[in-house]
Amino acid sequence: MDSRKCEELYKAIIEGYAEDAEALARQLLDQGMPPLQIIDECMVPAIQEVGRLYEIGDYFLPELMMGAEAMQAALKIIQPALRGEGARREVLGTVVIGTVAGDLHDIGKSIVATMLSANGFDVYDLGVDVSASQFLDKVREVHATILGMSALLPTTMPYMQRVIESAKEAGLRDQLIIMVGGAPVTQAFAEKIGADGYADDAAGAVKVAKNLVAQKAGQQKA
Ligand code: B1M
User: Which atom of ligand 1 is closest in space to residue 97's alpha carbon?
Assistant: First the structure.
């Protein structure tokens, strides 16, 4: 495998070249690099570097947006391969997922949604800026097993608790598994707001979702 291509994809995202990022992602797939490895090794470190450059003032909003566009262009190529990886034998559960109200970051949430879908879950991705009522309406409509929320801003994290409170008020909390994630979210925060599960990356989210579904099934049998 040509590791220079991974380096080139990393650079294309940092420099915000969407067309190059797309072409390089395709080349890496054609070379046989596993899709999750492309995301984790060539792409996530790049968008994190874009964030660091923005934080220290070397990049401004246009560069932040260009980096995100390049990341998404590459992701568009990778996602079908990621979905194709999971051999779907049985449906493990139904997931309603979204980025909470006020928050427009959706790259990580989309990776998590794709990975869950590739691993046996039926996934309804509500996108970004999702309100409590939008989450709960969908949960009712599709009889969701899991409600997943993502947040990338410390200012939008508290909204996760609001959604959990709304689920309680609507009488939906007990039947639901609630999972949270996103860069500033921690296990401690998840516990504090009363979520059932937390993961710091997409592979972890799949593991946690599967464990929680199995646990719930065990409880229901007992
Ligand atoms: Co924004 N942004 N941004 N941004 N942005 C951050 C978050 C920031 C840390 C950058 C920085 O300053 N270093 C900073 C927040 C700082 C703070 O408040 N402490 C920031 C800011 C300030 C802003 C704006 C306010 C900028 C402005 O307008 N002045 C603005 C806010 C807009 C809004 O949301 N209301 C803004 C806007 C944007 C863009 C639109 C330009 C773009 C997003 C584009 C898009 O998503 N379509 C963007 C980006 C790209 C970033 C950074 C650089 C990268 C985020 C990302 O995609 N990471 C980010 C810096 C950073 O995070 N280091 C930053 C890669 C992704 C794979 O990781 O999302 O963490 P992540 O997802 C992971 C895990 O967290 C986990 O799995 C994923 C896959 O491994 N996970 C879950 C995620 N959700 C999960 C759910 C689960 C389980 C696991 O269960 C349900």
Answer: 91
